[in-house]
Amino acid sequence: MLSPDHPKKQQQDSLNASGHAGEIRALKDRIAELEEQNSALKNQSKSKTSTAKPVVARTDRTFNVEEMEESADKEMKEKMEQLEREIANLKMEKEQLERIANYSTCNEVGELKRYLAIKDDQLEYLGKQCDEFDALEAKYLQKITDLTKERDQLRAQIDPSSVPVAPVVPVLTEALTQGVKMLSPDHPKKHQQDTLNVSYIF
What we know:
With 202 residues, the chain is mainly α. The chain folds into two domains: 7-51 and 62-125; 164-202, no CATH class. It has four helices and no strands. Helix 1 runs antiparallel to helix 2. It comes from Ancylostoma caninum.
């Protein structure tokens, strides 16, 4: 089933909506046309029934004008009844199409609501996952800190000399005023100091 935001789904819904709207407009136009014809026939029927109906007698054939007009009236009434039935059928079809159009709209809205509900559930799930990850990360970081502290304490208990002591770095101004020389990179004490720094890291 195509999702509501799929291009083909949107194109199909647009075609269906335009098709229903076109059919409804055509039905409305047809109903207006038939109602106009019906009204004209009714007026014509009334005008004919109100006029005088003379009788014309002939030697060979006697034509009764009243019978002719009655026949014409009967024919027009039958035609009017047929038009009225057609109008009733068209109105029924129009109502059915309107119900179908409304049903399609309701279905589309329902589908969109269902789609949005799914997205909301997904966002809520991802939010919970992020919160759980943050809590787990904080827990692990705290565990690492505690273990590192415990390790250093154990090392100090076993071998106090293994605990690194922060080297005293002479102040530059004192070195200049008191003649203290800075250690060069190849000085033995400099190598010993670097070794202590490395062991402190590990």
